[in-house]
Amino acid sequence: MGTATPALLIPALVSSLVATLAMITPARAEPCTGSTGGGGRFATCFDLGNRLSVTAGSDGVGGAIALRHVIGFDDEPDLVWKLEHVVADATHGSWQERFSGALYRGRFLRHTRHGHIVLPLGTPRKVFLPFDIGGLVEAGTVRWAGNGDAAQTLRIGVVKTAALFDFARTRSFQRRFAIGPVARWDVDVDRGTGSLGAVDEHAVSLFSTVMADLHLASKTGVLSANVRIEAGTVWHSDTGWVPEAVAEASVERIVLAVNDRPIALVLGLKYETATEEAIARVGARVVLFHRTDARVNLRPLRTAVR
Amino acid sequence: MSGFRMRRSKSGAISVAIAALGIGLPAFAVADDLPPLMDHDSPVLCARDKEGQLWRIQCNPATKICLYAANNELDESGNRVKSLERARECAMDMAVDREKLEAAGFKMVSGRPDVPFGWTRDERGRVFQVNFDLKRRMYFGAAYTPKKILENPLESSRTSIDFGLLIFHLKSDGETPTVHRFRFVEGQVHLEPFSAELVIAHYDVSRRFLDPLLRITTFVGQPQRHDLKLNLGLWTEAGGLEIHRTSAGYSQLWKHATAQVTLDLWQSPILDSFIRLRTGIGLEGQRDEVNGYRSGLTASSALEMDFVLDPNGFHNFRLELAHEVPRYFVPVNSTSNYSQRLRAKVQYEAIVLAINDQPLTLKLAAGGEKRDDIPGVPHQWAFVMDAGLRFSLWAPPRPRS
Question: Could you give the ipTM of this predicted complex?
């Protein structure tokens, strides 16, 4: 049996040390991942835009599917399309005769480092702008408030669209301050007849209302707030042009998470001049399914092999 | 101007040689006299000058011209400010020998960096889109619509909105190129007097068949073959809605589903323009405040033209002449089971500017209609014209023909 010389031992020790180090996960801090004393991990950041949630509150019980994603371009890294979709957003007032829902709601913002207008007449010219642009789309919204009357009206929002000019100009979904003209077509249907064919009135905004849409969210997604104001004149088939305004604000604060699925406290306030109605609401939002925030690492901590 | 050499190694000699090239920032040309663009499909070389600045160089052996440009966007003062967008990768490890190039007859010319098809650059290297496919977009617009009815030329004016929430087509090439066209939630709403049209889903397909349906050979004189190509396709719509308000109240026409066979009389090489006939049948229901609800089967036919008039997609023209004959399951007013609807529409749309590469278009349209299925609407031709603006999202460059 031979004896190893120091010259041979040193490389062997180094390799052993390297192998051991490689098997230990470095205990570096991960900003969106908490850990318990026993090494268990939990999420501290949440993706608010990709989830199926149920909300129960003072205005009723409802749910929505939210999806959002970014489309980037390899050959133009400064350009991204930020796409947000909400599908089947519905709330039923269990203890009030109310229902509101939307089949589809989408917001598409094109963010680029340098916004611009191209004037294509003659030699194309480029004039730079300080905002991102995009659009908002809603199709198939339904709203009904019974108020205990025999005459009940169902308002169907056939389509709503808006051009958005986003002055927040961020690459992420964290901030938005968008302003733009709104076009929409709503149909009021007399629900008392039991037939959807009996139209009471049409209401059309011909880009004659303006929307201001503010969204702020914390980096972790634990706290988020939305403010939306729409004001202008709307044409009604019975009464002509009528000034209308809607203001709505909401705050969502995640207060706990079960199996890393967040449960949030939701506060909201809405005022409409058309109904002269101000509604405050408070509720709890439970996320049933969601996409784990990309910054969260829930893989279990590895231990050193000895 | 003395010669220069660019080598794979970063030797000082290379830097000196590049500096000697005299590549300075090109004097800014006036907008109407822009330097030539490099070809995006041909290789581009990159080389550094002695200050470490990167330049793009592209030589064309056919024209004996080498274009050079800064590998960055420039600010108003000519300073390099950011990386180029949508430029192809340049090869850094290639040798560029200016003396050899000039000895071989090449001329060094200030140029603009390359861009993909459908895009261009200004003199500072900033990229922007100049080719738009309005058949792939989401749009919404507003228009002014003065209406003229033959009996009452002083009918009130009105305004309108129109929208198309998603419009796109899918093209497959090959021996039998095929275009599938989709349109979702497209329509328009007119005020005073109120009318609205909406189609939830539209799908049609055009195909260019390789083999003729009929081959006719004539034997008078020299035998000759004559091919009769029938480029047949399909046209469908589901969830159509028309609402009209007349002196007799509201009328709602629900076009539940329509299917038609199409015959393309003419197709452009890339199938983006066509002239076609279509005919088929649909199921509809109509409700008004005089007759109540009635449903029926509707035979419909149309001549349709759709042209993209220029290679960059700036000018678009559409024409439609349609005839519909609904046959109701029960007679209307105990007189007849049939009604007639005749419709003509023509539309021209042109891009006037683009905001962040999203086009704003001017739409000019005219239409006429004659129908007897709506109580309160006189059975005579009524004409309408409108002019408005549309804002489109997406609208990528057209496919290269």
Answer: 0.76
